[in-house]
What does this fold into?
Amino acid sequence: MRFMIRLSEEDKRLLEEMGEEISKVEMLENWRHLMEFTPCPSGSVQEERAIQFIASKLKEYGLEPVILRYDAYVSEPKWARLEILSPSRVEIQCTPYRQVGSTGPEGIEGEVIYIEPEKIGEVECRDKVVLAEQEAPGEWMGLMGPRLLKLQEMGVKALIVIEQDTYMPTVVHQRADFSVSGNPTPENFHLIQTIPAIVHVTNRDGQRLRTMAKEGGMRVRVTSVVETGWKTLPLVVAEIKGFEEPDKFLLVNGHVDTPPFSPGSVDNISGVVALLELARILSKHRDGLRRSIRFAFWTGHEIGRYAGSTWYNDAYWHELRYKCIGFLNIDSPGVVGASQYRAVSIGEMEELCRESIAEVTGIKVEGTRWPSRAGDHSFWGTGLPHASVISARPKELYDPFVNYSGGGWWWHTPYETLDKGDVDILARDVEVNLNVIFKMTNCPVLPLNFTTYAEAMLRILEELQGKSEKIASHFNIYPVIERCKEFRELSGRLEEAVKRALDSGAKEAYQELNRCLMKISRYINPIAHSNAEVTEQMSMETFGAAPFPRLQGILKLAEMPLPHGHEFKLLRTKLQRDRNYVEDGFYLANEAIKETLAKIKDLIP
It folds into this structure.
């Protein structure tokens, strides 16, 4: 056990008691009841019924739920059809993309041309139907962002995308427009592409279509009916107040809505069931909670581009920024066959998650990963510590082309029925998350450890510099690396101070240490994960795609052939400003640690 994760013996007994109260019977009953409302895309009657059921259960468990309503810009696919008109007539299974454009029921006819992913934007395609591969670097949700906008600019009629899933080549996963995160604004509305029709076909059918298109003379009729517009959506929030620091709260959440056409039994109905069970148990033991817990049940996740969580961040930004101790996202627990856990996300909650998994299951998760670009991780700019403890199917049962449903091949398909979940595994996942939650609320000093986080960030920054060393005389990130090294050293000193404070019972120092830990998150997380301002949302193109998104352009700069050219100088200017922004984040964090160490010097024996 590392220094910051400390519970009293009384708290340890309480945590064990709560773990024993997890009810498989209660969870299975809630699971079956919620499945009566699915599929429940956002804005539907089914979603409203699910929200009302959730609120009723929270009341039954002793909480006071509030149903909030907000405006969301959503795009709901209704149906799609792909008809081959020549050289032969046949209908091909397809699913509509979550997009803004729509053909109307009459569809669009056109000649099909096949374009390889790396040549999109180079091959003339005006008034053509383009057949393309989904597979492209980092694009697990389908062709995204600049490629789609380029095709739109070039006048493409429609787009047929070949599903990359070779693990289960006969299914089509419902995939999405990844452009704007949450509701659009006047400044980014233009980034949402409006191609009239985008449909996905199975990998197996896609191979046939590719051969046909390459032979020439292929014509199709594509129909994709999508309803796009503003809808008023509900979401549920309920809070359990802590007895000692009620103004500080942990945000625990998951999304209610399911993907279009999918029952979503483990994406994310099982997550809703887990949240309800956690609320039931923690409400029963509310007198034992030092800090508060706020449960949130998002909508607008699947067809609103995380509309619910981003709206909540906008509406409650100041409260989240200064009172929220962290964020725990629960998505896709309880998947049948899940026998292991995904690599723990790099961050200040990494150690806590790793220990909670080991303590409950005996599984030691060795690997780490940069936090996923999926899920309602809509609080990076605000600076919240993020965590998501996710169980997974073993490698031999894991479909590498999905994200997520525990790695099940049924992700975002009509096959995600109740039999794809396992209540025994769900109970284990609930206990792991309960462990994380209780330690965040009850450890005297917040279990946020920046030492390993700093080490990981330093490796990433040095790798970025190493890949662009040839232009170091024109531009480099050496100043950021030096600040990060100082942050690593200071984080170690802060960790030692926490240990001494806890060992000696210096309660007078706890408040200062907790204030410092929250400040560090607010300074470090936005520079490590976001390229937007602290009150803004980053675009889906960069959302979690790579660490330090403000600095990733250095790789592009290093590829430019003319270091004294116009484009080089434009990008270098931008990178200089972004480097200043990132360096300042480290500087502010370092100053906060120094000030705190000076304040508590005389408080710790």
